[in-house]
What we know:
By secondary structure, the chain is an alpha/beta fold. Helix content is 28%, strand content 22%. Helix 1 (14-32) packs antiparallel against helix 2 (74-90). It is globular and about 45 Å long.
Amino acid sequence: xxxxxxxxxxxxxxxxxxxxxxxxxxxxxxxxxxxxxxxxxxxxxxxxxxxxxxxxxxxxxxxxxxxxxxxxxxxxxxxxxxxxxxxxxxxxxxxxxxxxxxxxxxxxxxxxxxxxxxxxxxxxxxxxxx
Length: 130
């Protein structure tokens, strides 16, 4: 049940934005083994004058924040980073140097899901430790 937040410069097409969300989701399914239907994604478009980044980046600079259940291995995370970069390079054509990915892992008892139950007390239906 990852929560995905993406930040980009305002002005991209619907197709561009959709391919970002699809590419991230596909990587999460592949690397973290989440169910395909488990999509919780938000894409924020920021006016250029409100979005500062290093001059080594282009106007395609993309920040991806993932809030995920704790328990994925370092190998699974490395695989995820690689899969996201590969997918977004293929479509919509964002170079890897323009992608920043951050994972936050709050403990499962800090997630209120399925009617307000702590996530550590719920059968999620999939494995966290991959």
